[in-house]
Specification:
Blueprint lengths: L1 E5 L2 E5 L7 E3 L5 E4 L3 E5 L7 H12 L6 E9 H11 L2 E7 L7 E5 L4 H9 L5 E6 L14 H9 L5 E6 L5 E3 L12 H6 L5 E5 L4 H4 L22 H8 L3 E3 L7 H9 L22 H14 L12 H4 L10 H10 L30 H4 L6 H11 L5 H8 L4
Parallel strand pairs: 6-7, 8-9, 8-12, 9-10, 12-13
Antiparallel strand pairs: 1-2, 2-5, 3-4, 4-11, 5-10
The structure holds zinc ion.
């Protein structure tokens, strides 16, 4: 792959061995649609390694053997690319970037990122806003990135909104991040200006330790996306921007509770559709309603019927991504409405059997780099509490 940045426009050209069908780090198949994208709201004077990592978040799935950047990178970064992906990266010759002092939060406005925001109260927000691509028709017009950006502005937190059309480089399954880390493209290019040494993401226990929603569905201490010693963790660290997961040890039940208790509750939004309020009928709305009803111990409130595909999704035989939250909901929701049949597959669900999902998995805090670990630890200790050894075994035996 050959990479060129002109200002904040990224263009890439495939080498003969590259392919348009690729896989993201979580094994998800992604197909290339077009070879250019733009990032708005960022300076053009970032360290070369930051430009390289920003490009890599877009091109990684389609690069097979080598990547040639338009400016020299550090040998440390080339090594991280080689160790993580087996690619030859260059040219080299730049000195490695030193980590800055500030921690920023990649903020979406969903429950997980609002909960993370509570744990890092001084962190400025960086919000990724999708904009249209000049050459790719938008087949997903109901995605209201403008609504999400407006809500982010209303939080009162220090905020930088970065715009990008990079999701349109992806042809299938639909516009989206080629790699999850592409959401950080703006933070990477802003890292020098903002003196960033860490970037917090709202990835929770399921994504970090339980194999995610479209991934392995087993205990994944070596998660290539989010473990500090995984391919992406080492790459970001090599560019002086450590990945920090404040909510990496807690479930979506905990992030929901913390988000509902947060001063940002009024800006909370997980639904990507609808301009007035959440649509209540998409898969995300239903899933989060299950979690919210469980946290509030009230009947499920949904207009959906059992026949709808988004409901059927949760009536399947396990294993499936998010099943821990379904079991948690079954144990706590007094009336499951159209989801009543989900009980068939979780006959033993009780509050006790799912109580581990109300506590924090301690190794998730241990892996947060200094100087950010201690304040997050203190917050968790005060507001959440840690799993017992027996509860931690639920995490460590997950999927086995
Ligand atoms: Zn919705």
């Amino acid at each position: 792959m050959r990479v060129r940045w002109q200002g904040a426009e990224l263009t890439f050209l495939l080498d003969p061995e590259d392919e348009i069908a690729g896989e993201a780090a979580d094994g998800h198949p992604v197909k290339l649609r077009t070879n250019s994208c733009r990032v708005g709201g960022v300076p053009d004077d970032a360290h070369n390694d930051l430009f390289a990592v920003a490009a890599w978040t877009v091109i990684a799935p389609w690069t097979r053997e080598r990547v040639t950047f338009d400016r020299a990178i550090s040998s440390e970064l080339a090594q991280a690319l080689h160790d993580g992906w087996g690619v030859e990266a260059g040219p080299t010759g730049e000195t490695a970037r030193r980590a800055g002092r500030t921690l920023a939060l990649s903020y979406s406005g969903g429950a997980d990122s609002v909960a993370a925001a509570s744990m890092v109260p001084d962190a400025p927000f960086i919000h990724f806003r999708r904009v249209s691509h000049p050459r790719v028709p938008n087949r997903w017009t109901h995605y209201r990135s403008d609504v999400l950006a407006r809500l982010a502005e209303q939080t009162g937190r220090e905020l930088t909104t970065v715009t990008s059309d990079l999701e349109f480089t992806l042809a299938e399954p639909r516009p989206g991040y080629p790699e999850h880390h592409a959401v950080a493209v703006g933070a990477l290019l802003l890292a020098d200006r903002m003196d960033l040494g860490g970037l917090a993401f709202g990835y929770e226990l399921g994504s970090r330790w339980l194999g995610g929603d479209r991934y392995l569905l087993r205990f994944t201490p070596d998660n290539p996306m989010w473990a500090p010693h995984g391919a992406w963790g080492r790459l970001f660290a090599a560019a002086g921007l450590h990945i920090v997961l404040p909510v990496g040890g807690v479930s979506e039940a905990v992030t929901m509770r913390l988000a509902l208790e947060s001063p940002l509750r009024d800006q909370l939004r997980w639904c990507l559709r609808g301009d007035g309020g959440p649509c209540r009928t998409c898969g995300k709305c239903l899933y989060k309603e299950i979690i919210q009803a469980a946290v509030e111990r009230r009947p499920l409130d949904t207009p959906l019927t059992e026949k709808r595909p988004v409901v059927q999704k949760w009536l399947r035989k396990p294993p499936f991504g998010g099943m821990e939250m379904i079991e948690y909901g079954i144990a706590r929701i007094p009336d499951l409405g159209p989801l009543g049949r989900a009980k068939e597959y979780f006959p033993d669900a009780t509050e006790e059997s799912t109580a581990w999902l109300d506590r924090c998995y301690r190794p998730a805090i241990d892996e947060i780099p200094e100087p950010w670990r201690q304040p997050i630890y203190a917050y968790i200790e005060k507001n959440v509490g840690f799993m017992s050894d027996e509860q931690a075994r639920k995490v460590e035996e997950w999927g086995s």
